[in-house]
Amino acid sequence: MDGMNKRLLPFLLLATVLSAGSVFLFLRVFSIPDAASVQRGYMDQTLKVLLSIASVVFSLVITALLYILLSFRQRKGDTADGAAVKGNSRLERIWTILPLLIVTGVSVYGGVILNDMTGPSPQTVLNVNVTAFRWGWKFYYPDLGISSLYLELQADRPATLHMQSLDVVHSFWVQQFGPKQDIVPGIETQLSLTPTEVGQYKVVCDQLCGAGHTYMTAPVYVVSAADFQKWVQQQQTPPTTTAPPTTTASLTAGQLAQLGQTVFAASCAKCHGNAGQGDIGPALIGSKEALAKHGTAQGLFNFISTAMPLDAAGSLSHQEYIELLSFILVQNNLMPANTVFDESKLGTIAVK
Amino acid sequence: MRKFVSLGITRGVLGGAAGTGAGVGITMLIRLALGLPAWNSGPVWAAGILAGVVGYLAALGLFNYWICWFFGAAETEEQPPESRSWTRYLNVSTNHKVIGVQYLATALVFLPFAVILQLVARTDMSKLSAAFLSTEAYTSIISDHGIVMLFIVAIPAFAGLMNYFVPLQIGARDMAFPRLNALSFWLVPAAGLLMVSALFAGGFDTGWTIYPPLSTSYQPLGMNLVLIGAYLAGFSSILSAVNILATVLKLRAPGMGLFRMPLFSWTAIATTILSLLFTQFVAMALLFVLLERLTGMGFYNPAAGGQVLLYQYMFWFYSHPATYIFALPGLGIISEVIPVFARKPLFGYKGVAVSSLGIAIGGTLVFGHHMFAAGMPALLRIPFMITTMLVAVPTGVKVFAWLATAWGGKLRLKPPLLFAFSAIILFLIGGLTGVIQAVVPADLYVHDTYWIVAHFHSVLFGGFLFPLMAGIYYWFPKMSGHMLQDKLGKIQWGLMTAGSALLILPMFALGLEGMRRRVADYDPTPGFQSMHLTTAIGGFLIFFGLVILFYNILRSLRRGALAGNDPWEGKTLEWQVSSPPPAENFLRAPLVVGPPYDYGVTGSVHAVFPDKAGQAQGSAEN
Amino acid sequence: MEVSAVQEKPRASPMFAGMAIFLASEAFLFGSLFFTYYYLRINNPVWPPAGVHLDIGLAVLSTFILLSSSGAIWLATRLIRRGSITGLAATLLATTLLGSSFLGITIWEWTHETFSPWASAYGSIFYTMTGFHALHVLGGVLLMMALLIRTRRGRFSPCNYLAVEVGALYWHYVDFIWLLVFTTLFIIK
Question: Is B540 in the same domain as B446?
Answer without folding.
Answer: yes
